[in-house]
From TrEMBL:
Positions of the catalytic residues: C2 (nucleophile), K599 (for fru-6p isomerization activity)
Domain Glutamine amidotransferase type-2: 2-218
Catalytic reaction(s) noted: D-fructose 6-phosphate + L-glutamine = D-glucosamine 6-phosphate + L-glutamate
Compartment list: Cytoplasm
Assembly information from the UniProt record: Homodimer.
Broad class of where this protein is predominantly found: cytoplasm
Enzyme Commission number(s) from the entry: 2.6.1.16
Name of the protein described by the UniProt record: Glutamine--fructose-6-phosphate aminotransferase [isomerizing]
Amino acid sequence: MCGIVGAVAQRDVADILLEGLKRLEYRGYDSAGVAVIDSRGELRRLRRLGKVQSLADAVHASPTPGGIGIAHTRWATHGEPSEANAHPHMSGDIAVVHNGIIENHETLRDQLKAQGYVFTSQTDTEVIAHLVERELKSADSLLAAVMAARTQLHGAYGMVVIDRQQPDRMIVARSGSPLVIGFGIGEHFIASDQLALLPVTRKFAFLEEGDVAEITRQSVSVFDKNNEAVVREPQESTVEHDAGDKGEFRHYMLKEIYEQPQAIANTLEGRLFNGQLNLEALGDLSDIEQVQIIACGTSYHAGMTARYWIEELAGVACNIEIASEFRYRKSVVRPNSLLVTISQSGETADTLAALRLAKELGFARSLTICNVPGSSLVRESDMALMTRAGAEIGVASTKAFTTQLVGLMLLTVALGRGRGLSTDKEKQIADALTHLPGLIEKALGMNSAIQQLAENFAEKHHALFLGRGDQYPIAMEGALKLKEISYIHAEAYAAGELKHGPLALIDSEMPIVVVAPHNDLVEKLKSNIEEVRARGGELIVFADEAADIRPEANMQVMDVPHCDDIVAPILYTLPLQLLSYHVAVIKGTDVDQPRNLAKSVTVE
Ligand code: G6P
């Protein structure tokens, strides 16, 4: 999704801005642009459709020296991807970059047009540029002009404004889209994600909802939504490593798949030792009678898996809903309900809105299971369980998902203690989690076999994924991964539902992927496999040897290392991730930045 970088410094900022944009590429975008006020006081803007590299080539072909500038990667919402619609947008001496959506842009556009402003793009952002330009005519400072402009804006924004006439300051404002200020020595930066600024600083202050700030080389002045001066203390970044490097791997996604043993070990650090689970961070949950999980995308699948665990192992009622649905319907909240949001980014607009709504609905408290420290969901929830997967760059979520599942298993234990969960069962869970990183390492050994399997798959246009019980959400996640990065249409079904429709689709052109650990449902699953075989379907079954599923005509069986049932959803995710990855590589798609998708979806 859109990315913002800005800088005010004593040195030339163009390369800092471009490096920042490159670090935000993983979020997904379709065009990029930069505007710098040069040493002669000219405002120079360059924009390009496509990759940041083509913008960087253009900047290097026509060097743009200057100590203040703003830059942007755009993910189209209003107006097609094009150079004219790329940010920064300008009005006179003003240049603006913006993330989010201005909902009343049409009304403002008509008003501004009537006053003589000429629009050169189809974007909602351009109204901000003209509005600030107009307000500046009667305001005594750029800060006052932005403050006046924002009172007229409805919707979500993170924005940065510069003025050619005042080349010593950036004005930034946050409402609904995150912004972080980076502190240097005699220089300051702004970005929508701290990852963009890691090469220049590790000291960050997060703006709160409704904040406006005036940023110069020497000072940062922040004002809250009532325009009262406030202090947002800078903190040292806890982002562990600079994820900007693919190392020996061809794609970030593959690197991140291979990082899962370590990522899971990190999630468990301090929370599991000597076979004992330490769940202090989750506090006392004995009053909780009901859990409501809210999430989107891959995180939603983690939540769906957890529902099986929380009801079966902890004996606590659990509902799960997609955030964009929850936020727009009337829901009934039972007493002593815990709201759980799950999010790799901590910034997903729908999930955040659902959390804010939930606060009004009377949930006992809120917990987020999240991968980004300091993100909006972490700051606005009562409790946070960090997944510690490290920065995930590939748009298709891998290690963020499996570490979410581990976090949710910890939550299940915390909920179950003293009620549905026996001490023996807790010990079994602790043992299974102890062995999990090693098992995942073993499952990675399936890589070459899966790469071969992918050869046949790549020509297909559709695929079905089947699972039962807590493997059904894993089948959904497998189908989502395939869709996201290989563009093959894929659907997941609970295997028992096959006969109610999808069986009609089965023929030799339809690959059917089945996840079959050795659990209580395996005999039922075998019957579902037979239903498909009898109709000429091409089966690929990922199975535990103990499940005793043998290869047959039209049925390949891929052995998955034997594991405890409890952690099987986490383990069986691995081969499905590898399958999608290899199919996408064979098809030649952009694995890390699939078309039309974004890593962090900060608009509705
Ligand atoms: C986007 C990402 C997905 C992610 C979803 C929810 O669509 O591409 O990978 O699952 O958003 O994001 P969240 O950050 O809330 O987990």
